[in-house]
Amino acid sequence: MALDLSTSIALIRDLVGFPTVSRDPNRDLLLYVERYLASHGVTSDILWAPGGEKGNLWATIGPANARGVILSGHSDVVPVDGQAWSSDPFTLREADGKLYGRGTADMKGFLGIVLAAVPEMLRRPLRAPVHIAISYDEELGCLGVRSLVERLAAMPLKPALCIVGEPTLMQVIIAHKGGRSYRVHLTGRPAHSSLAPHAVNAIEAGAELVLFLRDIARGWAAEGPFDGAFDVSHSTLSTGLIDGGTAINIVPEHCRVTFEFRHLASVDAEDVTRRIKAFATETLLPAMRAIAPEADIVFEPLYEYPGLDIAPEHPAVTFVKQLVGRNDHAKVAYGTEAGLFQGRAGVASVVCGPGSIGEAHKADEFLAISELEACQRMIARLLDRLEKGEPLTMDAPDT
Predict the structure, then answer these.
(1) Which of 13, 44, 143, 366 is 20 to 30 A from 260 via CA?
(2) pLDDT per residue over 104-155, tens digit each?
(3) Where are the beta strands (DSSP E) in 245-397?
(4) Half-sphere exposure at residue 291, Cβ-oriented, CA atoms within 13 angstroms
(5) How far apart (Å, rounded) are the C-alpha atoms in residues 325 and 319?
(6) Burial class (CB in 10 A: 0-12, 13-18, 19+), 122
(7) What is the DSSP letter of 28?
(8) Which of 316, 307, 317 lies closest to 337, judged by CA?
(9) How many CB atoms lie under 10 A from the CB of residue 258?
(10) Judging by beta carbons within 10 Å of its beta carbon (0-12, 13-18, 19+), is residue 346 exposed, middle or buried?
(11) In degrees, to the nearest 5, what angle opens at C-alpha 147 toward C-alphas 362 and 176?
């Protein structure tokens, strides 16, 4: 049975209407979804963050005593500040076979399609369940979903598969890089610039740290490890922000360096972090404190998410390829929540959803209706398979 296109569009319109930029709450959107599910007799569970303004939603349709499939998406979107939109970004606009609005591609389009399929999910005699997961603060480094991942990790009967519906043009993504970001606060000793030898220049110390980070990045580019399936075949590290100082004639007391690295799954992110911190505390800091005992270097973690790496021959990959009706797969440099679902909750995960990542985060972001229809076909095929209980036969995920 084909899923209803107009219902999907109506739900996407409603979801886009909630301006859930990551800096703002997603509470109203979650309560809307909770009411929608309840209107169909489906109970949902919201895991609220402290303060109750943000949360993750979890709902199950079908038998809870069988291994099923998670359809997962995040509710937050990136800001529209400074972007030149042709229309209100939080009012869905349909034109030329496309749906325009913030989050249509990334990724309220997928969530609207999933919610529109709920009546059909209930109509089917499913032998394995569909789990609907909606998270928050994905755009800040996959921060919000972790309480849900922890709950999944403790479940005695885990789902067999998680499909994270990020925009991939309905191609199955089997790997993405992991990521970490830190803001480093360096404190020296200020002085008039004529007395520079008696001071500790925090910016100069920060510059030495930046050069060390650059050397790590150059090492990865020259020596690997490499994975040619990625558009950038090696891990990367870059300094994105540096600031400090008060005036040209004052030796700066403070400096902040903000950097990130995106690593292949084979790279030990903890070891990389240890190397960087060791250089700061064992090389830079002793030299600073030899002049100014009060000098300090503090690392402030901003975000961290693991990479995803699932074998092309894994039953979960084969299963989703059959759902989308194509046999190719790819690896991507951007991060998603799939690495957390697989690596920390132990649920085999792939990324596959409607729309193009090239349209995400831009002004006049859009989702082509043809992509919407392709995703609906995937979900319809999924329900066909769940009636047969097929995910019950899937092997455990790779480690």
Answers:
(1) 366
(2) 999 999 999 999 999 999 999 999 999 999 999 999 999 999 999 999 999 9
(3) 250-251, 254-263, 296-305, 308-309, 329-332, 349-351, 366-368
(4) 18
(5) 10
(6) middle
(7) H
(8) 307
(9) 15
(10) middle
(11) 45
